[in-house]
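Why show two proteins at once? Because comparison is the fastest way to build intuition. When a single record is shown, students tend to memorize it. When two are placed side by side, the eye starts asking what differs. So, the first record is below.
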Amino acid sequence: MNDRRFDKNRRIMQTVISKDGTKIAFDKVGSGPAIILVNGAMSYRAFDPTLGELAELLGTDFTVYNYDRRGRGESGDIQSITKQREIDDVQALIGDAGGEAMLFGISSGGAIALETAAVTPSVTKVAVYEVPFIVDDSREPLKDYESYTTKLVAENKIDELVEYFLRKVAGIPAEYLVGIKQDQGMWNKMLAIAPTIPYDAAFMSEFMKGKPPSADYWAKVTVPVLVTVGGASPAWFPHAADALAKVLPDARQQTLEGQTHQVDAKVLAPVLSHFFKK
């Protein structure tokens, strides 16, 4: 099922209905083979323009889906956390694309893309950028990411949840957190997204404990995968990329020199285009 309407900026906003009845909103750009972009935590189309810019750049050769994950932006939510529901959302978009698509996931969105590929034969390729697995002692591991964030949501401690995410998960220094909180508009937007943090934790928690990923776990991701990382990112990101590429059955790696976790879409787009065209 698909619905279309124009927003106030005359942008065509489309929706698809996921398996549990949740409405998933997306923009569709370009023409050609389908690519679905999967955002990371604390992001959606109107909040972080990175994937919107990436969609425009890739849209010269591909049909690109840039969607709001459930509970964010213009997508709905049934307020029940399971990994399968986010996978169902991607599969609904694949259905809209005609039954076959390639996936790109940034940050924790990379984990969703890989998990979807493991159970979805209609995914033909996957690319990821800096999936934030913690695979060794190069940064502090998170032992109870999912349980702790779920507890904070249940107790409605949303300010504490955002602070925890920014400090412990994203690794933002305390002095920067003060400045972020002073920007009341930005802080309020983060508070609005924050209840979806446990959704990311459901995918990420097991892989942020300082242990290498298991080859057995990722053995079902048999499609070609491009694992990318920024050359200027902290050491734990390339360590994670190395470890992930080693356990995926068909993976290749590429470092984007000078890039950090806040990647430049203009640098990323040609790398993805080359991989998805091959």
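Second record. Ask yourself what differs from the first in the token line.
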Amino acid sequence: MPLKIAAKVDGDDVEYFDHAIRPQLDHALIEFVGEVNENEKDDFLGNAFAYLFPIDWPEPFGLTMVESMACGTPVVAMNCGSVPEVVTDGVTGFVCQTFGDFITSVPKVGGINRRACRDEAERRFSVPVMASAYEQIYRSLTPETAAA
């Protein structure tokens, strides 16, 4: 299965990328496309079989997972940081405990309903839903509400 990798390589990281990463991408099925701009993102994510998120640090939110689900693309991610709060295991993708689980989950993505991914993203992370949740939090922190 082809693997397309979209990522920004910051100027400070170019030397490391060229020395340590780029040689590992030399495979007929791997394509490094570089940074994807906002105009290209929906097409890139929406046409993907899956969005792979092999995170190994406590990412506080992971907006790219939500963007993928909004495009109807299931997410395969390591159980780290916000992943289990964003991805509903078995519904919008897979939350993996080990890298072995990560690899074996990819073929299972075909069983995920892409419409369910989109619906879940809309239900939980749309602008009106997020704005309302923030407003509720802010209201709960005002002195008038705290004193009541």
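One difference worth noting in the second protein: The first helix runs from residue 14 to 21.
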